Amino acid sequence: MKKISTILLAISVLLIFSCKNEKKTDNPFFSEFQTPFQVPPFDKIDTTHYMPAFIEGMKQQNAEIDAIVNNTAEPDFDNTILALDKSGLMLSRVSSVFFNMTEANTNDQLQNIARLLSPMLSKHRDDIAMNENLFKKIKAVYEKRNDSKLDSSQIRVIEKYYKDFERSGANLSKKDQDKLRKINEELSGLSISFGDNLLAETNENFELVIDNKKDLDGLPQEVIDGAAEVAKEKKMEGKWAFGLSKPSMIPFLQYAKNRELREKIYRGYFMRGNNGNKNDNKEIASKMAKLSFEKANLLGFKTYAAYVIDQNMAKTPEKVDEFLMKLWNAALPVAKNEVKEMQKIIDSEDGKFKLQPWDWWYYAEKVRKAKYDLDENELKPYFSLSNVRDGMFGVATKLYGITFTKLTDLPVYYKDVETFEVKEKDGSHLGILYLDYHPRPSKSGGAWCTTFQSAGWRDGKKVDPIVSMVCNFTKPTGDVPALLNFDETSTLFHEFGHALHSLFTVGKYDRTTGSVPQDYVELPSQVMENWAGDPEVLKTYAKHYKTGAVIPDKLVDKIEKSSLFNQGFITVEYLAASLLDLAYYNINEPKLVNVEEFEKQAMDKIGLIPEILPRYRTTYFSHIFSGGYSAGYYVYIWAAVLDADAFAAFKESGDIYNQELAAKFRKYCLQEVGEGEGMDQYRLFRGKDPNVDALLKRRGLLSK
Known about the structure:
- The protein is mainly alpha-helical and about 700 residues long.
- Helices cover about 55% and strands about 5% of the residues.
């Protein structure tokens, strides 16, 4: 690491020197964006603009912090807390574009800049968080907060900043602060390396190329056509190419009759980052777990999980573990029964082998057809991407009165990204929404929602949100539009829920506007999935892409009846990953672990069956090693309890578009959620605590 740091330092000096010579007027980040709605001017942003803007942004924020520290007036809310809250505007502007691009449309140059920036930004953050004189002023305001005639919102902001500084090492000795700085810098660099390695392993280092048409037996025609198009793009005319992105891999696992090739592609997937090559992530994961423990220990916590969860609704790792194991004990027997069902099919076909992880999707699909008479390919024509998009927009309009107008004059960072203006019921501007649908080598896998500009207030003016949803759905082929399976349909609604949270957020202070505990984050997204599959909603958007015919009742009925299909597997593979996450961050001594042995022991301890792998194994578990969900992957199912209970409120009212309930949900759970603790805000909407039984019932996991 020392050698790399020396090289980075040398490059930094060169870049800083070159920045001095750049005309600030040539760099879009040096002023407010001169675009409609102040969206990022992607058509004018060049890779060379980022580093000068980051350096200037850090410089400006340092000057703003110095102004707070050197102010001779008695510290108060305005001259200390508000000044801190509004600092770093330029740094925020460039960061929100740059880091979104490193995920959605990256290249070697951006990745190199990210590696260079990592230690610089880590130092910048730590310099502020460990500024002794700044913390003294914050502490002075904190100690007199209840005697200063401040409103509840102001008091909450003060308390949040005080806690932030405490948790960032402001109370540590100089010696321990130096240790913490070193740990933060190393963790930041390792996190970037983990993500870069995974991107290479997913998009560059594996490809299943088929040149024998017989090996395509069982695959639907649109899957074959898509693979042919990918091969053609890669100058392999007459062949078929499959990769490790889920839109490519999952259909292959579901339908390909060639078991050997199913194993090959799935093995390529679950061995990512574990191939002993330059992209191997084992050592990185081990180091990150060790360093995270050391960080937590310095800050007075027994484990990193305890440090993280202390800020969440759950409060302690023990409570999370108890919650997860309750679900595990309900789900594991269901998953074992699913194995038995599939093994029966294998045996009846004279398969002469035991079910393996790469067989699951293939035989689960057979179970679905046999048990529910439901063929996913029968559904997909009704779920064209444009219809699903319009359907989710329609739900939001019926619930909240907002509308979506497609724009074609805004700059975008990739040619097929769509943009929409979102308006309130009265026609006033609410925000801008970007939609980025399809996989490409420059994009990370999965789906997420982010912002190019968060809602808030600046100089007495409302700042409108600019939100982006990024997905990896199958591309259109020939004259067939992009057709989604039902999981992908739910995913689009899910990310749209995050988008609504960002669009609706209101608040005067950046620190608390829209800010929620990590185990609350997925409530706004997951609750929207309930509308995606509701029979009443399906009738509004599930229309055949060729004929326009509304999805027939028999298919809607099959979707509803099959909602319990494969729930043992879905719940167990998720919980296994959640418990693996907690195992890494509950390490209570500064030791490096053998990743493969550690993972095996953690899974053996909970009794994971060999037919199922954790949804994410260690070396490609980007959520917890490069995605900000360390000791927090459990939050999806914690929030699932809330979302099942919340949707039950709409069902109980007899109207899933109940606008009175929607207004309450918007106000307490989306708009003003940063004004109070997560569970308190939820109770204001629901009038009571959530009940876990709603989730267990929905998944078919309640004991008979």
